[in-house]
Amino acid sequence: MYVMGILNVTPDSFADGGLHFSHEDAIAHALQMVDDGADIIDVGGESTRPGAERVSEEEEQDRVIPVIQALAARNIRVSVDTMRASTASRAVAAGAEIVNDVSGGAADPDMFKTVASLDCPYILMHWRGHSKEMNAKAIYGDVVKEVIAEISGQLSKALEAGIKPSKIIIDPGIGFAKDADHNWELINRMPELIAMGYPILIGHSRKRFLGGARPEDREEATVNLTKSLVDTGIWGVRVHGVRANVEAIRS
Q1: What is the pLDDT of residues 59-68, one digit of tens each?
Q2: What is the pLDDT of residues 175-198, one digit of tens each?
Q3: Given phi > 0 = left and psi -120 to 50 = alpha, else beta, which region is 67?
Q4: Please, are residues 36 and 3 in contact by the beta-carbon 8 Å criterion?
Q5: Which of 4, 23, 25, 95 has the fewest Cβ atoms surrounding its Cβ within 10 A?
Q6: What is the per-residue pLDDT for 20?
Q7: pLDDT value at position 2?
């Protein structure tokens, strides 16, 4: 199971906004996560926490491209966390190997054809809307069936655009347009997600459904959930606290 270390080059991300905002701090933190056992560093320049304001394309790229270049020069495997095709393209040119799109291709009509031309792995997440509106869209009958159906719709578009099935990884979007009960239902019914036939990435780290008033209070619950996912057959987890999660997987 892969461990993807979260590197937010932002001032406003929910768990660590501002801590690694300078390029120097971001690179240093990434190197520490690699030392702690991260397989991939996921570099993002736009917060997707509930209520977050979008940043411009130029600002996003100014934040992430120099960091990606520096990490790739050290032979570190990097993914770019972006909803923009232009940022994905520039990031891959800078050395990123994976495009991690939390909108699953829904935020930018050029994303699928861009990723197809890049011929790189693509993480397609379940998404119902931008940060300002997603909480209002957390309405489901059967959350697992609806998430699978909505992901399948985006998958069809991705494949039609030319993205190879072997390049696609699915993320059910824990915490995105979902309340706590929805998140736990997705976790508890993991076999149904795996039955889609694609690798599965879970991004549960420090999210509110784990309890605790502050993100840092949820680290133990994050690690415990990571440990419970080890035998499910998922592809990977996306986490803030790399060392503890790596130790949980190996124990």
Answers
A1: 999 999 999 9
A2: 999 999 999 999 999 999 999 999
A3: alpha
A4: no
A5: 25
A6: 65
A7: 98
The vertex-220 CA angle with 219 and 222, nearest 5°, equals 60
Nearest to 210 by CA among 197, 223, 228: 223
Contact (CB, 8 A) for 91 and 64: yes
Which phi-psi region, left, alpha or beta, contains residue 129 (left: φ > 0; alpha: ψ -120 to 50)? left
Residues sharing a CB contact under 8 Å with residue 218, sequence separation 6 or more, in sequence order: 206, 207, 208, 210, 211, 212
Which residues belong to the active site? 207, 238
169 beta partners: 123
Q: Are strands 78-81 and 40-44 parallel, antiparallel or unpaired?
A: parallel
DSSP 138-189: ---SSHHHHHHHHHHHHHHHHHHTT--GGGEEEE--TTSS--HHHHHHHHHT
Task: State the Cα–Cα distance between residues 122 and 98, nearest whole angstrom.
Answer: 6
Alpha-carbon distance of 46 to 103, in angstroms, equals 13
Average pLDDT of the residues in 93-103: 98
pTM score: 0.94
- The two structure tokens encoding residue 163: 């993205």
Q: Classify the C-alpha dihedral 161-166-172-175 as positive or negative.
A: negative
Tokens of 125: 């997440």
Residue 237 near residue 229, CB atoms below 8 Å: yes
For residue 202, the surrounding DSSP H or E stretch is: strand 201-202
CA–CA dist 13, 29 (Å, integer): 15
Tokens (6 digits) for 190: 């993991």
CA-wise closest residue to 186 among 197, 10, 175, 51? 175
- The CA–CA distances, whole Å, from 136 to 96, 129, 144, 176, 178 equal 33, 9, 18, 11, 9
